[in-house]
Specification:
Largest sheet: 6 strands, parallel
Number of helices: 4
Helix content: 10-25%
Strand content: 15-25%
Number of strands: 8
Length: 201
């Protein structure tokens, strides 16, 4: 067991991000059993869950004439438009059926209709907190290991925000999978190097 100041944060291992889902990440299901085994090493485990209302502003279907994976400007900056995914209460929003759910905390994000939320710490406006930082600090946790989906979006944003909030951050890239949209994975790696995020495999 790792020290009490360390936590495992499992990002969005949900049906819609796994093969057959609305926004499938290649090989997204391959990491589930490795994540389950890793949970036993940590005194604290947090699961995050994308939890969008119908008609969320990040969905391409909410923007007339737009297609998935196009980018638009939102009041908070650029936003990739996605296929409808992880809609509250649908099977796609549920965790992968093989994923362990015996976590200390399940944190839902992306439920505000007008702003997306990649990061486990902040909405995409980079100012509205999810409450995760406060939860970790109240428990005396200052070191986090991130796994999940997708490496270059929700894992990446969580890693960068965690580092900005002065947590020690490790990304287990072997237990994460990427979309790699227009060089997004290389950009994530560059960002981690500059922010002091540790990459482990």
């Amino acid at each position: 067991m790792r020290p009490a100041n360390e936590a495992l944060v499992v990002i969005d291992v949900q049906n819609d991000f796994c093969p057959g889902g609305a926004l499938a990440v290649p090989g997204g299901h391959d990491i589930v059993f490795g994540i389950n085994a890793l949970m036993d090493e940590f005194p604290a485990v947090i699961l995050t869950q994308d939890w969008h209302p119908t008609g969320h502003s990040s969905f391409a279907t909410s923007h007339w004439g737009r297609e998935p994976y196009e980018s638009v400007e939102m009041p908070y900056g650029p936003q990739v438009l996605w296929p409808d995914h992880c809609v509250q209460g649908t099977p796609g929003a549920e965790f992968h059926p093989a994923l362990r759910r015996d976590a200390d905390l399940i944190l839902r994000k992306g439920f505000r209709p007008q702003v997306d939320s990649y990061s486990a710490f902040y909405e995409n406006d980079h100012s509205t907190p999810t409450g995760l930082a406060g939860y970790l600090r109240e428990r005396g946790i200052d070191s986090i290991t991130l796994v999940g989906l997708a490496t270059d979006f929700c894992v990446n944003y969580s890693a960068m925000d965690g580092a900005r909030l002065r947590f020690r951050v490790t990304v287990r890239e072997d237990l994460s999978r990427a979309i790699d949209l227009s060089g997004s994975l290389a950009a994530a790696h560059a960002g981690w190097a500059g922010a002091g995020v540790t990459v482990a495999r």
